[in-house]
């Protein structure tokens, strides 16, 4: 079995958000650097997807499938020619978003960056999910940090 690259790209930002929870609120610059590092590593992993993607195949690639909840509901991830570009776009824009907020976000920096990382994970999950239930889970998971980002920071 090969390395589950799609799960890594999807859930690595969640690991970054969990790590940020345990860093003291007073260390805003550390939060910024950690969030930037996690988004850049996610970008590099998505570039590995791009360079290993076979454009001559129309079917989804890098398939990850396992049983999940029963009732025919599986954890099923993959990328095709369109979703690959959307994942690349997301992972390219997220470090830019973190950098653009470097000086403009001064209050509640920790919470802001946690929500940004969770948003990235949700967006990527939407693009790589191959079944409707998992798509719905990621879609709803994406809306929660987006609600707080819009509600608190505008």
Give the gist of this structure.
This protein has 154 residues and is mainly alpha-helical. The chain has five helices and two strands. It has helices spanning 5-21, 28-52, 81-100, 109-128, 132-153; strands at residues 61-70, 73-79.
Protein described:
The protein has 154 residues and is mainly alpha-helical. The chain has one domain. The model has no long low-confidence stretch (mean pLDDT 93). The chain is built from 5 helices and 2 strands. 68% of the residues lie in helices and 11% in strands. The longest helix has 25 residues, at 28-52. Strands 1-2 form a two-stranded antiparallel sheet.
Q: What is the topology?
A:
Blueprint: H1 5-21, H2 28-52, E1 61-70, E2 73-79, H3 81-100, H4 109-128, H5 132-153
Antiparallel strand pairs: 1-2
> Unreliable runs, pLDDT <50, ≥5 residues?
none
Shape: globular
Query: Structural class given helices, strands, pairing?
Result: mainly alpha
Helix-strand pattern: HHEEHHH
Radius of gyration over alpha carbons?
16 Å
Query: Order of strands across the biggest sheet?
Result: 1-2
What's the number of helices?
A: 5
Question: What's the N-to-C terminus distance?
Answer: 44 Å
Q: What is the number of domains?
A: 1
Question: What fraction, in percent, of the residue positions are helical?
Answer: 55-70%
Number of strands: 2
User: Which range does the strand content fall in?
Assistant: 5-15%
Note the main sheet.
Answer: 2 strands, antiparallel
Calculate the mean pLDDT score and round it.
93
């Amino acid at each position: 079995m090969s390395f589950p690259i799609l799960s890594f790209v999807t859930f690595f930002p969640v690991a970054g958000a969990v790590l940020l929870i345990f860093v003291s609120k007073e260390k805003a610059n550390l939060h910024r650097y950690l969030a930037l590092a996690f988004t850049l590593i996610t970008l590099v992993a998505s570039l590995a997807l791009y360079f290993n993607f076979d454009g001559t195949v129309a079917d989804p690639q890098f398939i990850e499938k396992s049983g999940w909840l029963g009732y025919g509901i599986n954890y099923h991830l993959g990328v095709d020619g369109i979703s690959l570009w959307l994942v690349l776009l997301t992972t390219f824009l997220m470090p830019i978003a973190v950098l653009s907020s470097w000086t403009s976000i001064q209050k509640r920096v920790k919470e802001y960056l946690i929500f940004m990382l969770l948003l990235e994970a949700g967006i990527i999950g939407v693009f790589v999910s191959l079944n409707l239930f998992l798509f719905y889970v990621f879609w709803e998971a994406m809306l929660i940090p987006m609600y707080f980002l819009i509600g608190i920071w505008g």
